[in-house]
Amino acid sequence: MQLQRHPWSNCRFIVKLDPDRTVPAAAWQQLQEAEPDLVLVGGTERITYAKVADLLGLIALHLPVPPIWQEISDPHCVYPGLAGYAVPCVINSASPEWMIGAHAEAIDRFGDLIPWQSIVVEGYLILNPDAAVAKLTNAIPLPDSLALAYAQAAQTIWNLQTLYVEYSGRWGDIELLHKLSERFRGHLIYGGGVDSVERASACASGSDSVIIGNAVYETQRDSLAELATAIRSAAPSRSARLLSEV
Ligand code: 1GP
Predict the structure, then answer these.
(1) Ligand 1 neighbourhood includes 193 CB (under 6 angstroms)
(2) Domain spanning 13-245: which superfamily?
């Protein structure tokens, strides 16, 4: 079997910027020093096309180097011409809308305009029931064994290439993350509560990409550059090794 490289296979450190939040001036400087491998524009609440456009203008000014992807939460806010688009499918949502309904409606409406070659489908496994995204998508709280089963189902039944272990706003269970990375053989993303070198190292060792969000907007003990270094220094994750053998 010929393994394809995942579009984010070289993206160990991803920063997620929310169009509904203002990046502090000092954080732009920190972001330049951290040199993220990819900038993901996305958020859960109050996203509008105008806010997306404003944020993209600021990113072009302050962070012109890394590729910019948009995580689509509303097809009406899609900004054309970016490096790529991440399409979330919440695999533990109780609402079919977040697994396939909204996606089918977008295909029905936009059809041939969708740049399929520039899309990464993210299987979202939301493990922080208090996160805004968990509430919005009606995410089902899962015991560990079921979380592992969902991850396996995402791979074996849905053939998803990307699993996003999402703890947004909270530090996650790293023991579970490692188990998930054994169960899911595709590209595994971790996000949630990374605000220190220790946490950055811990989650990077169990994932292919680490997404940092809140730390951009809040004062934290370690700088974004230090977090980035910790992520890049952590031992390569299981599937990154697998792909590099191809
Ligand atoms: C949010 O996974 C990202 O969607 C990052 O989480 O904001 O907690 O860093 P934090």
Answers:
(1) yes
(2) FMN-linked oxidoreductases (3.20.20.390)
